Amino acid sequence: MCGIVAYVGDRDCTPILVGGLKRLEYRGYDSSGLAVRTQDGGIEVVRSVGKLQRLEAALAAHPLFGTDGIGHTRWATHGRPNETNAHPHAAGSVVLVHNGIVENHVALRAELEAEGVRFASETDTEVLAHLIAKAVDGGAPNLETAVRRAITRVQGSYALAVMSTKERGKIVVAKNDSPLILAHNEGEAFAASDIPAILPHVPEVLILEDGEVATLERAGITITDANGERVVRQPHRVSWSLVESGKGGFKHYMLKEIHEQPRALEHTIRGRISSDGGDVVLPESGLTPETAKEIRRVCFIACGSSSNAALTGRYWMEQLGGVRASVEVGSEVRYRDAIFGPEDLVVAISQSGETADTLAALRTAREAGARVLAIVNVRDSAIARASDGVLYTHAGPEVAVASTKCFTAQLAALLLLAVHVGRTRGSLSHAEGRRILEALKRVPGQVRTILANARGVRGIAKKHHQSKSMLVLGRGPSYPVALETALKVKEISYIHAEGYAAGEMKHGPIALVDETMPVVVLCPQDRHHDKTLSNMQEVMARGAKIIVVCTKDDAELTAMAAVRARLAASPDGSEPPPSSRPHPGNVDVIEIPDARSEVLPLLTVVPMQLLSYNLALLQGRDVDQPRNLAKTVTVE
Ligand code: G6P
Questions:
Q1: Which of 455, 471, 492, 480 is nearest to 591 (CA)?
Q2: Average pLDDT for residues 119-142, to the nearest whole number?
Q3: Is residue 97 within 8 Å of residue 85, measured between CB atoms?
Q4: Is there an atom of ligand 1 within 6 Å of 304 CB?
Q5: CATH number of domain containing 607
Q6: Same structural domain, 370 and 470
Q7: Catalytic site residue 51?
Q8: In a shared domain, residues 21 and 160
Q9: Would you state the pLDDT for residue 239?
Q10: ∠ at Cα 352 (346, 357), nearest 5°?
Q11: Would you say residue 559 has pLDDT above 90?
C-alpha cells in the first residue's frame, strides 16, 4: 500500500526520497511523486504513473533540488492510477502525501465545494490538503495546529506528511491506523511508512502513535498528542541490516526469501525449546500456566497467507493443545458481531503486523475481554503493540509481496504454541512433546534438502505455465497448504487456481477436470495418505495432469506413476476403458523428506512456492510486485 518518505536536513533530498521510495516498492504501488522545497521557498512537485524508473526519468527532465521534501508511492483506492491522482497533492500553501482512506471524503468534498473549493483530482486525499489549507488561512498559528484541526474532521485511516510554503525547514506528520515511523540524526529528520526506507541513514527509529502529530525540523522532532501536549518517546534500535534487505544475488526477492527459509525457521525456533527438549518456553507470549489452563477456545484471526497459516494452526491446536480452535479472516470477524470473552485466547497472525482488518478485529476481541497474542514478524508493529503478548517470528525482512518465509515461520511459531499449550494443559506428554520438537528441529535441514533437489520443479512448471486453471488438493493439515499453494499460484502467475479439501472435490470441482487441467495433489505419508491417494485416482481417471507431492520412496505412488508412464508410452487400445484405469498421461512426482506428520506442512509448501515462482517466471510476470497487490494492507 502507499509508501511515504519525508526528509528535512542539509543534504540534497531528492536522492534520499527516491532511494527511500525504492525500498518501499514492496508495499505495492501504481504511481509515485515527490515535492521538494526549492531555494526560493516555493514547493515543486513531480509525479508519474507506473514504476519508479518513470519518476526518475521525469526527475531527469525536471530536476528538483532542495533540502526538504516528501515522496510517495500510491496504490490507487479512490480514482484511477494517473498523474493527476498521484501524490503529492497541493492546496493553497499546503502540499501533502497520504497513506490510508478518508472514509467521509464524499461529505467533506461536498462541503468544501459548496465553499467554492475546486478539486483537481478524484482522490480522497485532496480533501485533506484543502482542509489543512483552510485551517492555515483560518488563522492557525502554525502548520502543526492546522494539521491537528483538519484531522479532527476526518474519519478513516491516515499517515500524512505535510509541507507549507509558509514555513521553511519544517514537515508535519500525523497518523491514525496507518504506520509511520520517525528518525532523527544530527541536523536531519526523517519520516517513513516503514523502516527499510530510512534504514541506510539512521540506527534508531521512533514510532508515532495514533492521534499524534509530529514536527520534523533540522534541530529535532517534536511529538504532540491530539491536544497539542508534548509527548516524550524513546527510540528503538533497528536490528535488520541493509545486507539482509538486498537481493543477495538472487533474481528476485521471492526466490531469495524462499531460500532463506532454513535460516528463518532456525531463528523462529531458537531459544524456544526447553533444555530437556520436551517443552516450549514462550515467556513473551504472556501465557502463564494458569492463564493457559483457563483458555476455553483459541480463535485465530488473520488475512491472506497468514490465514492459511492460521488454518494449519487450528489442526495443531486441537490435536496437540487439546483446545477448541477456530479461524476467522479479519475482514469478516470485525463486522460479524462475533462473541468473544475472557475465556478466549485470540491469536492474531500477520507478517507485517499492520494489516488493518486483523488489527481492528483483535481490538474488538480485546475490548470484549479476550486475551490477545500476536504472531508477527515486524517488531513493534501496530498488531504487536495492540496485543497482550507477542511471538515474533524473527524471519527477517520479507520484501516480495507474496509471503514465503514469513508463512513457514508462522507455521513454526504456531506449532511451538500448540505444543506449549498442550504441555501446559497436560494434553500432550513430555515424551510426545519431545518427539514433535525433535521433528521440528530437523525441519530447517530438510527444507535445505528440498531446495537443493528442486531443479525438477522448473520442468514441471514448463509443462503447465500455459494452463488456464489449476486445482490443488489436500486433506488434514495439507488442506491449508493446498489453499496457500493456490493463493501463491494465482497471486504471482495470474493462473486461476483453487485449493480444495480433497474430500470435497467430488462435490463440485471434479466437474472441471479434463485433460487440460493440472491437479496438484498433496499426499505426504500421514493418516490421510490413502484417502488422498483415492481422490488422486479419481481425478486421474478423468484425465487430469497430476503433480503429486509425496514423501520420498512412497512405494504405492511410485508404482502408480510407473503404471501411468507405461500406459502413456503404449496407448495401444488394449488397456481397459478410461473409467477403470488411470488415464494415459504423466504424473509428476515431487518428493519431500520423510518426517513426522506434524511438521509436514512446513515441508510440502516449499516445492509449491517454487512451483508458483517458476510459473510466474515463465509467464513473464512481475514476481516481486504482482499487479494490484500490496505487501502491507493498511486499508480495509
Ligand atoms: C497482503 C500480502 C499477503 C499477506 C496478506 C496479509 O495481501 O500480499 O502476502 O499474506 O496481506 O498480511 P499480513 O501482513 O497480515 O500477514
A1: 455
A2: 95
A3: no
A4: yes
A5: 3.40.50.10490
A6: no
A7: no
A8: yes
A9: 67
A10: 55
A11: no
Give yes or no for residue 351 CB within 6 A of ligand 1.
yes
Entry pTM: 0.77
DSSP state of 320: I
Tell me the pLDDT tens digit for each residue of 577-608: 333 333 345 689 999 999 999 999 999 999 99
Residue 631 among the catalytic residues: yes
355 close to ligand 1 (CB < 6 Angstrom): yes
348 CB under 6 A from ligand 1?
no
Closest residue by Cα to atom 7, ligand 1, is: 304
Q: Is the Cβ atom of 402 under 6 angstroms away from ligand 1?
A: yes
Å from CA of 54 to ligand 1 middle? 27
* Ligand 1: residue whose CA is nearest its atom 13: 350
Pairing mode, if any, of strands 297-302 and 344-350?
A: parallel
The answer to whether the CB of 305 is under 6 A from ligand 1 is yes
The cell numbers describing 510, all together, are 471434479
Judging by beta carbons within 10 Å of its beta carbon (0-12, 13-18, 19+), is residue 530 exposed, middle or buried? exposed
* Same-domain status, 441 and 542: no
Number of C-beta neighbours around residue 155 at 10 A: 13
Does ligand 1 have an atom closer than 6 angstroms to the CB of 352?
A: yes
Burial class (CB in 10 A: 0-12, 13-18, 19+), 455: exposed
Least confident of 383-392, 419-428, 623-632: 623-632
The pick from 349, 350, 392 for probing ligand 1's pocket by mutation, whose C-beta has the most ligand atoms within 8 angstroms, reads 350
pLDDT digits (tens, 9 = 90+) for 169-222: 999 999 998 889 999 999 999 999 988 899 889 988 999 998 999 999 999 999
Q: Are 178 and 158 in contact (CB under 8 A)?
A: yes
Q: Counting atoms of ligand 1 from 1, which one is nearest the CA of 402?
A: 9
With the most atoms of ligand 1 within 8 angstroms of its CB, the residue from 352, 376, 406, 490 to mutate is 352
pLDDT digits (tens, 9 = 90+) for 403-433: 999 999 999 999 999 999 999 999 999 999 9
State the average pLDDT for the chain. Answer: 91
Q: Is residue 68 part of a domain?
A: yes
Q: Is 243 inside any structural domain?
A: no
Out of 2, 13, 523, 550, which one is annotated catalytic? 2
Percent of the chain with pLDDT over 70: 94
Percent of the chain past pLDDT 90, that is, above it, reads: 74
Domain count, the chain: 3
